[in-house]
């Protein structure tokens, strides 16, 4: 909502000397959020000038200009810029005459867009200033000619400051109006709020309007056959008639200026008047060309298949829930949203029927959204309009139409009012202080509620409060407490940091999950978030390592028909993100995501439980039923690597990312939660044969559990996704990792006894997995083995076909003594023996 300051000052005593920032600060104190400020971007000297004479001169480029003599100050006096009273000005417009009074921007003036005016030579003359058009002054879009002041009903003295004359020296503050405070969508409401903040005197503009004793003779019927609501669609409907108007009269400059500052374009005098009153009082107004109406007006719901051509010349098919204004010819307007073209006011209109109504907020909001037709009127109705202001608003429009358009008020009209009073709210003694934590006195509480317009009656144990008609949001004692705090000042609430009670904070599971994510990020991976919606093919491809059919949750109302299932694996989302990044030139990727997957049981039915009402907390039985209607949703973590692990540098060649990076990240992840991942060769339907690892971890009892897979995507999948040929991925059940993690991580002590190192080269069948051979050696070597890792995998000359040579580096250490070479060798040979037993390993010569 934009509020011109001079307009605001008509209804509240703005503190003298207040700047835009001061007014914003005052409004922020009562809970209105600052949005910005606006002005015309003009600085003087800009004055009223009179055209004394001009000579038309044809130019070589085919254009005709006028070399004008313009008086810019009373004869014999200095102009505002200190120069002579008569200036020579070049003008390209041809819509003015000798004797016309115009707006002259003198040298030194600045127009919107930082356009500085200076005396300059043009078309063979020195133009000492410029005569301005409406658009150049920021008043509108008219630029075909200069602004003739007589055309807008002004005849000022030559030399008058045009900024003040046209209201161009005004500024506007803009605040954000929340949905519960619709009354602030008006100058009336903002002036009242400014008065609350500063204590300034407030003058209700509605009180200054003389409302006729009554009018009748025009038939209005409210027939609300709403299929969705019990509330009345139109609780108030007031009409007034004005005859004999001249719709072609110009909008006064002061009104056009205020509308412009308020963010509304000037259209025509009659439309501008209705918009002006809407901004002033907060009551949307609609005007009908009375002579285009057929019979009286009926407020009703639209019929099936009914159409309406709205003011934007769009034919709209109406819904049975739409509230419409109709005459005997059919619908002539969407109530509270937009009028119809059939009764539109034009320059030929002489008789206007003025409508001021109050419509059901929910009905208007639904209609505006259904037809994608937001308007200034619908924004106000859907937030709630004061039902008691309609008669005053209609009378104010009639007043302006008679004053500015030359009309005559007619006694014909109507008044329909069935709006219910707002419900009383009981405010118990001590409630406000107990809720807010401040000791407000009883007098402060009552005076604050009275200041916002509420009526207060003492009751046993508290007070009964009747909210004012413009505050339908005051429905509960907590809202009354908020009003007390607003009026007394939010700054009275102390800023105290509460002491956290012991035993709270993150659970162990939450800590471990965060630690896992932090570890991957520290390891160089970038965290991303993918949509949980995937195709049936993606679920089938990644949901089962064997490629067997998987059960998946299908969405009842998917955003995309091609992605209508909830994911059972997180890898498809990473593939989509990688493809998008590659298309933007990011070729080296190391990504990870943590999130939930949705593992439906075959044949199970989910989401069928009846949702409980929101009026009270569900019972334990209801909660159990709701939980039973959900599939298992474990948290997984998935990783994807492609491109280079690092780029080529001087002395360092580039290294392509691959499965080794995925496995390294998996080990880092497991280490973060205090686990050891055991890797063995496996298979997965979406991964390359021979380049797929099964990931397992042991529980406290030593039993192995499958926790995930890592590997290289099949080339067919990467080609389909327009990815590089080598893409490594891994996916781990993070919830299972956290569950298997020990409650306490035991750190091995550092022993000071020296280590004994030995190598072991074995020949084993090529089908033997190196990881399994490593595990066998480690088990056979026993507790003396401190570390083992594979250093070479050789196949070729000197090794029989179908076999391979594996070389391991072993480190032995005792905790209580220095090992002898014989003890280390004995342990090594024990490891060899177990490898021989399990894999037929032989010692390589």
List keywords for this structure.
21 helices, alpha+beta
Shape: elongated
How much is the radius of gyration in Å? 41 Å
Mean of pLDDT: 89
Helix-and-strand structural type? alpha+beta
Distance between the termini: 89 Å
Low-confidence stretches: none
The DSSP helix count reads 21
Strand content: 25-35%
**Largest sheet data:** 7 strands, mixed
Secondary structure: number of strands? 42
What is the topology, as strand order, of the major beta sheet? 28-31-32-38-37-36-35
The share of residues in helices is 25-40%
Explain what you see.
It is a single chain. The chain has 21 helices and 42 strands. The protein has a seven-stranded mixed beta sheet with strand order 28-31-32-38-37-36-35, sandwiched between helices. It has a five-stranded antiparallel beta sheet with strand order 5-4-3-6-11, with no helix packed on it. The longest helix is centred in the last third of the chain and has 19 residues. α5 packs across α6, α13 packs antiparallel against α17 and α20 crosses α21. Helices cover 25% and strands 27% of the residues.
Describe the SSE topology:
Elements: E1 2-4, H1 5-8, H2 20-29, E2 33-39, E3 46-58, E4 64-71, E5 86-91, E6 101-105, E7 110-111, E8 115-116, E9 120-122, E10 125-127, E11 130-131, H3 162-166, E12 171-176, H4 187-198, E13 216-217, E14 220-223, E15 234-243, H5 253-261, H6 269-281, E16 285-289, E17 297-301, E18 307-309, E19 315-317, E20 323-327, E21 330-334, E22 338-339, E23 352-359, H7 361-370, H8 376-381, H9 390-404, E24 408-417, E25 425-428, H10 431-436, H11 442-451, E26 455-459, E27 462-466, H12 477-488, H13 508-522, E28 526-527, E29 533-534, H14 536-543, E30 565-566, H15 571-583, E31 589-596, H16 620-628, E32 635-642, E33 644-646, E34 655-656, H17 659-672, E35 678-681, E36 687-698, E37 704-713, H18 715-720, E38 727-733, H19 734-740, E39 756-765, H20 770-781, E40 785-794, E41 803-812, H21 821-839, E42 842-843
Parallel strand pairs: 13-24, 14-17, 28-31
Antiparallel strand pairs: 1-12, 2-12, 3-4, 3-6, 4-5, 6-11, 7-8, 9-10, 15-23, 15-24, 16-23, 17-20, 18-19, 20-21, 21-22, 25-27, 26-27, 29-30, 31-32, 32-38, 33-34, 35-36, 36-37, 37-38, 39-41, 39-42, 40-41
Helix pairs in contact: 2-4, 5-6, 6-9, 11-12, 13-17, 20-21
């Amino acid at each position: 909502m934009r509020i011109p300051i001079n307009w605001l000052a008509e209804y509240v005593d703005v503190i003298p000397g207040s700047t835009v920032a001061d007014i914003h600060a005052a409004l922020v104190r009562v809970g209105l959020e600052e949005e910005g400020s606006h002005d015309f971007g003009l600085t003087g000297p800009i004055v009223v000038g009179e055209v004394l004479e001009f000579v038309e001169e044809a130019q070589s480029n085919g254009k005709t200009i006028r070399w004008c003599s313009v008086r810019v100050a009373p004869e014999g006096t200095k102009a505002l810029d200190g120069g002579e009273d008569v200036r020579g000005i070049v003008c390209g417009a041809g819509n003015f005459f000798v004797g016309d009074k115009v707006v002259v921007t003198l040298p030194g003036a600045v127009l919107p867009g930082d356009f500085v005016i200076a005396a300059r030579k043009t078309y063979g003359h020195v133009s000492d200033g410029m005569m301005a058009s409406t658009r150049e002054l920021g008043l509108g879009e008219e630029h075909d000619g200069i602004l003739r002041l007589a055309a807008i009903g002004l005849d000022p003295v030559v030399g008058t400051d045009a900024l003040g004359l046209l209201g161009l020296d005004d500024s506007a503050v803009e605040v954000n109006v929340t949905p519960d405070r619709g009354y602030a969508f008006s100058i009336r409401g903002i002036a009242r709020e400014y008065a609350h903040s500063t204590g300034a005197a407030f003058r209700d503009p509605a009180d200054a309007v003389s409302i006729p004793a009554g009018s009748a003779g025009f038939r209005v019927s409210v027939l609300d056959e709403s299929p969705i609501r019990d509330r009345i669609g139109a609780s108030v409907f007031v009409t007034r008639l004005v005859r004999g108007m001249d719709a072609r009269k110009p909008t006064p400059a002061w009104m056009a200026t205020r509308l412009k500052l308020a963010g509304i374009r000037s259209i025509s005098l009659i439309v501008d008047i209705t918009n002006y009153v809407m901004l002033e009082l907060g009551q949307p107004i609609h005007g009908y060309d009375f002579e285009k109406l057929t019979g009286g007006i009926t407020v009703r719901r639209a019929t099936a298949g009914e159409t309406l051509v709205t003011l934007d010349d769009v034919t709209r098919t109406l819904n049975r829930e739409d509230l419409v204004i109709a005459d005997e010819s059919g619908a002539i307007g969407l109530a509270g949203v937009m009028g119809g073209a059939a009764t539109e006011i034009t320059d030929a209109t002489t008789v206007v029927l003025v409508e001021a109504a109050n419509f059901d907020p929910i009905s208007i909001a639904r209609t505006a959204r259904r037809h994608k037709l937001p308007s200034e009127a619908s924004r106000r109705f859907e937030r709630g309009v004061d039902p008691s202001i309609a008669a005053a608003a209609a009378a104010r429009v009639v007043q302006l139409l008679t004053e500015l358009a030359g009309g005559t008020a007619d006694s014909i009209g109507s008044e329909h009012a069935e709006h219910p009073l707002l419900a009383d709210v009981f405010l118990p003694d001590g409630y406000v202080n107990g809720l807010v934590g401040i000791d407000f006195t009883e007098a402060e509480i009552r005076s604050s509620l009275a200041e916002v317009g509420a009526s207060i009656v003492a009751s046993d144990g508290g007070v009964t409060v009747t909210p004012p008609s413009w505050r339908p949001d005051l429905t509960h004692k907590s809202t009354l407490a908020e009003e007390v705090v607003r009026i007394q000042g939010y700054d009275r609430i102390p800023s105290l940091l509460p002491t956290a009670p012991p035993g709270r904070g993150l659970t162990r599971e939450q800590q471990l999950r965060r630690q896992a994510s932090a570890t991957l990020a520290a390891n160089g991976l970038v965290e991303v978030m993918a949509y949980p919606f995937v195709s049936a093919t993606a679920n089938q491809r990644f949901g089962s390592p064997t490629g067997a059919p998987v059960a998946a949750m299908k969405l009842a109302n998917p955003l995309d028909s091609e992605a209508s299932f909830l994911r059972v694996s997180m890898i498809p989302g990473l593939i989509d993100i990688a493809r998008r990044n590659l298309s933007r030139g990011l070729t080296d990727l190391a990504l990870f995501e943590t999130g939930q997957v949705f593992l439906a049981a075959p044949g199970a039915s989910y989401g069928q439980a009846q949702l409980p009402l929101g009026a009270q907390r569900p019972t334990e039985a209801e909660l159990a039923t709701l939980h039973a209607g959900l599939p298992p949703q474990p948290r997984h973590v998935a990783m994807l690597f492609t491109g280079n692990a690092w780029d080529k540098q001087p002395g360092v060649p580039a290294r392509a990312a691959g499965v080794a990076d995925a496995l390294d990240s998996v080990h880092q992840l497991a280490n973060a939660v205090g686990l050891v991942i055991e890797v063995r060769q496996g298979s997965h339907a979406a991964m390359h044969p021979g380049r797929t690892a099964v990931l397992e971890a042991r529980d406290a009892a030593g039993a192995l559990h499958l926790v995930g897979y890592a590997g290289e995507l099949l080339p067919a999948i990467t080609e389909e996704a327009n990815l590089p040929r080598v893409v490594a991925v891994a996916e781990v059940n993070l919830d299972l990792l956290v569950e298997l993690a020990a409650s306490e991580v035991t750190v091995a002590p550092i022993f000071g006894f020296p280590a004994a190192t030995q190598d072991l080269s074995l020949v084993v069948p090529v089908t033997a997995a190196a990881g399994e051979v490593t595990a066998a050696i480690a088990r056979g070597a026993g507790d003396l083995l401190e570390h083992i890792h594979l250093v070479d995998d050789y196949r070729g000359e000197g090794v029989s076909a179908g076999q391979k040579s594996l070389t391991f580096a072993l480190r032995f250490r005792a905790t209580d003594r220095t090992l002898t070479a014989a003890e280390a060798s004995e342990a090594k040979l024990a490891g060899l023996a177990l490898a021989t037993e399990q894999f037929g390993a032989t010692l390589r010569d």
